[in-house]
Every structure is written in structure tokens, then in C-alpha cells.
Amino acid sequence: MTIAKALSGRPIRRRRERGVLPLLLGPSIVLIAVFVIAPAGYGIYLGLTDTQLTGWAARDPQFVGLENFRNLLGSEDFLASLGRTGEFVLWSAIIGQTVLGMVAALLLRTKWLRGKGLFGALVLLPMVVPEVVASLTWASVLSSDGDGTLNRLLGLFGSGAAAPLQDHPMASVVIINVWRGIALAMIMFQAALEDVPDELIESARMDGASALQVFRYITLPLIRGPVFLYLLLTTITTVGVFGLVYFLTQGGPGQETELASIYIFHRAFQYSQIGLGSAASVILLVLLMILGLTYARLAKVEV
Amino acid sequence: MSRNRVLATATAGMLLTGALTACSGSGGDADGPVTIKLLEYQEPRAKVVKALIPEFERAMAKQGRKIKVELVADTLTDEQFHTKITQQLHSGTAPDVLDMGGSNVTGLAGAGYLLKLDDYLDKWDGWGQYYTSAKEAARQPDGGFYSIPHEASLQSLFYRKDVLQRLGVDTSQPRTWDELIGRLKKVKAKTGEAPIVIPAGTAWGGGTWTEGFLPLVAGTGSTFYDAKSKKWTLKSKGLSATFGLYDELIKAGLLPVRDLQNPNPWEPTKYKNFVKGTLPVSAQGSWGWKFDWGPEGAAPIENLREKVATWDYPALVPGTKPYSISGGGYGYSVNAHAKNPDAAVELAKWLSSGTPLAKQLVTVGAVSPRKGLSGTAPYKNEPSLLDAERKLPGSILPPRGDGEDQVSQAVQSATGKMLSGRADGGQAAAAFAKEAKELLGDNRAAE
Predict the structure, then answer these.
(1) Is B165 contained in some domain?
(2) Bond from prior residue into A253 cis (ω within 30 degrees of 0)
(3) What confidence tier does B32 reach under pLDDT thresholds 50, 70, 90?
(4) N or C terminus of chain B: which is more exposed, having fewer CB within 10 Å?
(5) How many separate domains does chain B show?
(6) Contacts of A53 in chain B (CB under 8 A)
(7) Which chain B residue is nearest to residue A167, measuring alpha carbons?
(8) What distance in Å separates residue A34's CA from the closest CA in chain B?
């Protein structure tokens, strides 16, 4: 009786669901269409024109087809900025934040560590600080003048003034971005580690597995999904990092820290070439989509 | 049902109120005072103008015109200002009157953001007193005027007389760059530090173009911008010589390459080492006398007139002579969408005349762009500025034309490549020609 009722009720429920579905999805579809798809579509259109904000040519933008893309893909400066972005993502996000975030999460899971609250708070702090504040604070710490915090500290040991933002600009921004990003990695990995059953780890330990072996053969395979998800997220956000680096170096010295995002800002807004800047953004978007799909495939996660 | 009606009535009410508010905002009150927003982005300029505004309002009230001026003082660097004002003008949110350097005007006027002032200037007797060089510098590629210049400047090489004399280096006017480089090498041999700064690279932004590269290339005699065909010549003897000069200075260790790549390159060079005397020569506009090194400037030098003097630019290519160059200056432009353009232009004219003008010139260290001010206090008490004004009519006018922003960008990028050691003079000249051609398109680049 119950089964028959249920069977007979299904089509009605489906029909009802079909009716409710557009209502539930509608607002998000409209929001995505207005704030994501339409600007992206407009960006692609602008990338096909020579739109600029200043000069007589600004009055009459022309359709130039793929010329902006051809210019960009043949431009040493743009390709170099992509290379620098890759370097920045690799060292700061994929290696720095992921490894140190994992270490922090594992440390917080251990039983012997004292002062976990303080440790967790210290790691979280950089994420709480607004980007501009973080950036300007570091600019003050690393200032090449004698009154920078780092140089004052070095002075205590009798060392001469250092100028890390000029002598090692990429390494400096990588370290600062790692400092800022560990927190998110730690939170995500901590949550993932909660799902690893203690019994599995304990039995492996009883069978004589070392801590490293436990991590490599038990913990890591079990949290592969969240790790790849984090890698996907951090890659996307790190490619888009702008303020942190711009306030520290403005892409310099020379072009040593001109990441793709800064290259786009310079071209689109400082030099007012919206068409060229949009084309560069489209190229970056395509590269990110390829990277994202690769991660999703590797992790076999549904995003 | 009744709830729906209430909702519908409330929505209609809100829409009506909104529409009425919008209408009342755009209409304005013909009898009430007219409000003009004036933008200043440099602190000293904002300060002096702030004190002048009540005088202007009183002067207008005497004529029976109720004009109120609201000062928008937004302290920004040149680059930040350019980026911000472009966005504001594009989105229709810019103030009515803008005080900005002449190099900004071409691009903004071209895009149609600024009001053409020709009709106003034709009727203004003050316009007849302007030096031809100041007028020509303000004339835009379409032949019209989109700013009222209230400053002129003279670009030359400032040097520390006291330091060079102490080091036993000749301080007479160098005839050629070879002669000057010989002297600079002597300084370097004694101090071990780079002795000359000429703006270069991307960090100095537009200054690399207006204060660094342009004054050099303009003295070579090669055509850079042809006003008739409205095209830029991207390869010439003069351009090669200019890139070659940067190259020579970099290779001989005479240019502070590292400091020029600092995000604020003027700080370690002009504000620190020139003041200390370890970098005794600086390519600089006449505003250096007040704005940079004056008693209330960014980095004051005591007894400035005794310690610092200027040279004309030495000749770079054979057959040319030492020269000084008109460096342009700030001017007041009016937003093309200003609600009260007449009042806005009135403010611009008033600020560009008589005592108000003299006060501004002295504050920033600019030369008067118009005759007849040498007897007006406090300008009449500034011998360095009066000297520069005397030289103004004989100075070279730098080439200006549509596409200047793009040429400036290509210059910054090419000189930046030299600073980071990625290009020599020849490679930089080729990279400049390639990038500028791409940015300008075929219409604005000569073959």
C-alpha cells in the first residue's frame, strides 16, 4: 500500500520539483549571469576591439579581431609576466602555503603540542588583516631606509642596511604571500584531517609504520580530495593576487614582480588600453580554466 | 491580495520619490549659488588654492554672481592621479575644474572629456598676455585649447655647485654630452657613486617621458612628431642618440640604476642623494627651486641659491648647441560635463591672473606663463624664477601630439629594459619603435 502510494506519488512530486527548481535556481542564475557571465562576455568583446580611455582614438573604438591577442602572445613583456605569475603561484601557493599549512594542521592535531590556541591564533592573524594593511606593514618592515624594522634589527647586530624588496623582490613577495595564505590552508587541512579515523593511524603505528609513512600512505590518500580542492582554490586566488604585490613593489623594480594581474592593471588603467588589458585577462582566464580542469581531473573531485 | 496591493503601492511610492529626487538634483536652482568643484591632487597646490577660494567668491559676489567653490583635495602621485581622473571622467563623476600637468591634457581632451575653451579664451584679454611658448604648449592636436596654463617651466640640468667645486670639477656650461660625461666620470672616480639622475624606467611613470627622455630627444633636431601629418617618427638619428646616451651613462655607472628602479625613484635620488651632495647633477624642471628643494619643499637644501645652479642641456648630436627646454606646467581644465561651465571657466581665469597666480607660482616654484607678472608680489621676489622666465622665450618647445600617452609608455618600457640590463641602446631603440608602433597603430606612426 505504502509502496503503491509512493509510486503513484512520484510523477506529481517530480512535476512539483520541476516547478520549484527554476524558483530555487533562478536568483543564483540571474546573479551569475549579471555579475559573472555578462562582464566576462563584455571583457571578451572588449578584447576584440582597440578600446582605450584616452586619446582621440578613444572616441571611436574599432573592432580589431584577434590583433590584441596576437600582439600579446608575441609580446616578451606579457609572456614574462605570465612566467612570473607561474613562479609566484608555484612557490607561494603550491609549495609554501600548502606545505606549511599542512605542517601547521598536523601540529595542531598532535597531542604533545602545548599552547595550541596561541599557535592557531598566530597563524590565523595574517588572514584577518586587510590586504592593504598587510602590504603596507611589510613595506614598512622591509623599507630600505635605516628606519625600517628589519634594518633596525640588523643594526642591532651591527649589520648594514638591507633592501630585500629591491635586491630579492620576488622572494620577498613570495614569502609575504605564504605568510598571508597559510591560515586558509591550515583551516582546510585541519577540517580534512578530522575525517581521518584515528583507528587507522593507530593500527598502522602498531604495525610499525613511521610517522612519515603514516602520513604518506594513510593520511594523504584519505585527504587527497580536500588537498586538490585547496590547490585549485589557492591557484585561482594567487593568480589574481594584485593589491598585496602592487602596494609593495608596484611590479618593480624594473618589471621583476610585474605579475600578469599587475601587467593587466598597467595596460588597462595606467596606460588606458582597455582593449589590450581585456585581451590579456581573457588569456589569463583561459589558462586558469585549463589549470582548474586539470586539478579537478587529478583529484576526481566534483567542483 | 491586500498585502500585494500594499507592496505595489509602497514600491510605486518609492520609485516616484526616487524619480522626483533625481529630477530635483539635475535641475539646479537658477537663483541660488552655483557650486563648482575644484580638484587639486598635490598638497602645496591645495593649500594655496584653499586660501584663495574665499577671495574668488568675494570677487564674484561683487560682480553680483553667487559662485561657491568646493575644493576636492585628494593627495595623489602623478600616476595615481592620471589613473583615477581617467576613470572619473569616463564614468562622469569627475569634479568641474581640474588642475593638472599639461602632459595629461592631450589624452583626456582627445577622448572628449574636457571642455574646448577657445571661445572663452578669444574673449579674455588675459589670453593675449601669454607667452607664445606657453600657448603653443597648451595647443592640442586639433588646434584647440582645453586648458588654461597657469604655469610654465624650464627644464635644465641642476647641479650642486658647492660639491663640484669642492671636488675640483669644472662648473662652466658643458658644450657637449661627451664633455659632461668626462666631468661626471671624474666625480664618480672621487665619490664612487653614480653622479647624475635622469628619469628613466617604469617606476618614474610619466616623469620618465616629460622630465627624462623628451628634453633629451627634443634637442637633437630630429622630427619626433609631425604636426602636419599628425604622425610620430619612431626611428631617427635623434632617438638612437638619446637611447645611446642612456646606455653610455648606465654602462659607465653614472646613472643610479638601482634607485631608478625603486617604486618612488625620486626619493633616493633627488630627495636624498642630491640633497646630501653624493649625486650632484639632476635633470629637473624649474619647480625644483621651490617644490623639491625650497625651504618648504619636499627635501629642503639650505642656502639653495648658493649651492645649486643650472646648466642648459649640452648638445647630444653634432651640429646642435646647448639648449634649455620648455617643460610645460600645470593648467586648469574644465570637465566637458560641468553643470556650470561659465562659472568653472571664470574660476580658471581668475586663478590664472594677477596676485592669485603670483601666489601659486611661488608656492610650487613655477615660472609665469604670461607677461607682466614680474612686478607682482610675491613672484617679483623670486630671482631664480624670474631668471627662468627670461629664458623661456628662447627655449625649445617639446613635441606634443595625439598618442603621447602611448609613446610615453613605450619610452618607459624601453628605458626600463636598459635599467634592468635586458637591452643596450640599440636594442632599446628597436624595442621602443616596435612597442610604440603597436600601441599607436598605423594611423599615428610614420613609416
Answers:
(1) yes
(2) yes
(3) low
(4) N
(5) 2
(6) 86-87, 90, 111
(7) B258
(8) 19
Residue B340's CATH number: 3.40.190.10
**Subunit contact B438:A71, Cβ cutoff 8 A:** yes
Q: For residues B311 and B156, give the distance between their C-alpha atoms in angstroms, rounded to a whole number.
A: 6
What is the model's pLDDT at position B17? 44
pTM score of the predicted model = 0.80
Per-residue pLDDT reduced to its tens digit, B48-75: 999 999 999 999 999 999 999 999 998 9
Instruction: Give the nearest chain B residue to A59 (CA atoms).
Output: B111
Question: How many Å apart are CA B342 and CA B345, to the nearest integer?
Answer: 5
Burial of B409 (0-12, 13-18, 19+ CB in 10 A): buried
Contact list in A for residue B403 (CB cut-off 8 A) is 55
A247 to chain B: nearest residue by CA? B263
Q: Domains (ranges, CATH) in chain A?
A: 75-299 (1.10.3720.10)
User: Domain residues for B317?
Assistant: 154-326+399-440
How many angstroms separate the CA atoms of B392 and B326, rounded? 7
Q: Which residues are bridge partners to B37 per DSSP?
A: B70
Residue among A55, A77, A269 whose CB faces B111 most closely: A55
Q: At what angle do helices B354-364 and B341-351 cross, to 10 degrees?
A: 70
| pLDDT above 60: residue B10 | no
B208 touches chain A (CB under 8 A): no
Distance from CA of A207 to the nearest CA of B (A): 58
A252 contacts in B (CB within 8 Å)?
202-203, 261-263
Range name among A113-117, B34-38, B97-101, B311-315 with the lowest pLDDT average: A113-117
Separation between Cα atoms, residue A169 and residue B126, nearest integer Å:
52
Q: What is the pLDDT, as a whole number, of residue B20?
A: 42
Burial environment of residue A265 by CB neighbours within 10 A (0 to 12, 13 to 18, 19 or more): buried
Q: Are residues B273 and B160 in the same domain?
A: yes
- The mean pLDDT of chain A is 87
Q: Are residues B286 and B182 in the same domain?
A: yes
Residues B143 and B158 in one domain: no
Q: What is the ipTM of this complex?
A: 0.78
- pLDDT value, residue A279: 96
Q: How many CB pairs under 8 A join A and B?
A: 84
Determine, yes or no, domain membership for B89.
Answer: yes
Asked if residue B4 is part of any domain, the answer here is no
**Is the pLDDT higher at B402 or at B101?**
B101
Residue B241: Cβ-neighbour burial (10 angstroms; 0-12, 13-18, 19+): buried
- pLDDT category at B151 given cuts 50, 70, 90 is very high
Q: Do A55 and B405 touch (CB under 8 A)?
A: yes
Same-domain check for residues B161 and B52: no
Q: Which residues of chain A have pLDDT under 70?
A: 1-13, 15, 300-303
Arithmetic mean of pLDDT, B108-123: 96
Residues B146 and B199 in one domain: no
* Location of C-alpha cell 613577495: A173
| Residue B1: inside a domain | no
Facing A166 at nearest CB: one of B108, B110, B258:
B258
| Same-domain status, B181 and B266 | yes
* Interface list for A 129-188 with B (CB within 8 A): 144, 166
DSSP code for B398 = P
One domain, residues B312 and B338 = no
Residues B44 and B135 placed together within one structural domain of the fold: yes
pLDDT of residue B120: 96
